[in-house]
Amino acid sequence: MAVSHVIEFDAVGLRYGQGAEVLKDISFALPAGSFHFLTGESGAGKTSLLSLLYLAQSPTRGHVKLFEKAVRSIGRDDLPEIRRKIGVVFQDFRLLDHLSAVDNVALPLRVAGYDEDEIQKRVVELLMWVGLGAHLNARPPTLSGGQKQSVAIARAVINRPQILLADEPTGNMDDKSAVRLMRLFVELNRRGTTVVIATHNEGLIRAFPYPRMHLSNGRLTVYPVGYSPDQPYLRTEAPNV
Q1: pLDDT tens column, 93-107
Q2: Which of 14, 73, 109, 221 is the most exposed, fewest CB within 10 Å of its CB?
Q3: What digits encode the pLDDT tens for the residues 169-199?
Q4: Are 238 and 203 spatial neighbours (Cβ–Cβ below 8 Å)?
Q5: 110 vs 84, 94, 103, 106, CA distance in Å?
């Protein structure tokens, strides 16, 4: 039977140590194949919310379900299988500096046991698509910030995950590159991947009409397409698409 909601939060709270809650009473459900932007000021809790989604953190209270399974009930032996269904683009890239661009992107496929010929075909094709055809064998220290981000995104999507989470994925890119990568996310979404993208780029949100989850003071509100909160921290220019 098909999964109707791949992500469900019910009255979730998160605090670090004895500090105040950074997330408060978060409740929402994302249907399979949906696409949402995640917005909010720096410090509003976007990265913390994403960390709950890719199982790097556990909620202090409330309930989280992924693929209709309660996260608290997922055993240690089952975690790798769940995590393989989730692609993550981190703000700090988290690439392996001693590996080439090809080998960084190939890691998820090798872990999953794909044939090496298939790995090379898929990896090279994707890296060329994101504009890195001339840097296949380059190692991360020799790449620009935007190029590193492209490698990190390619690694996150190469295995066609069921959920894609991206933390400011276009923050190091010019508008042309940002739009190219957004179109990749859109195509993945069309093929069934549930996408959540944290961003400050209001122009990008206007160019790609999807609903928004907005965090303010640790609380989440889900808004329909076209809602644009009047916030000075948001970029407002829309890139050419």
Answers
A1: 899 999 999 999 999
A2: 73
A3: 888 788 888 888 888 899 999 999 999 999 9
A4: yes
A5: 12, 18, 9, 6
